Amino acid sequence: MKKKLLSVITMTMISLFFVNLLVAQPRSRRLRRYRPKAKQTAALGIRLGNDFKNEQLLAGGHFWLPIGILWKFVPGADYYFTKNDSSRWQFNGDFLFKPMPNGMFYFGGGVAAQYLNAADINEPLDFGGNLIVGLDFGSIRGPAMSPYFQARWTFINKERYFSVLGGVNLILK
Q1: What is the pLDDT of residue 111?
Q2: Helix, strand, or coil here: 80?
């Protein structure tokens, strides 16, 4: 079941990526107005959030790497502040789709790997998937910073985690 879900998510993201490549070179005037005004650049981001299922705070970082006009590849990692002696990390590889390049709304998904270090765990690394919905507020303080807010659902080993994250992307030039 888990492999089937990951296969469906992966094939959907690959299909949408190729649709984006077709849209990236619009021929009609109607489609040209959706081109971004600024050049798409990479960003380094930091984030803070809360996992509501386990009531754990998290801190992490990521890269926003543009792929065409409408897509971003976002690899990242999060550390969860646990209440016991165990440690929990989550590594993500997400694809985000922003329907309007100059707009605020984006959504996407990807793969997640969770590392849980506890005394009663035999296999500390588990794999699953993410679903993400978010708002990107653009460059509020000059061209170098862009705050964002997102909700993330993570599905690992028949467990569902819901996290709310907020942070800032530092634009790399």
Answers
A1: 95
A2: strand
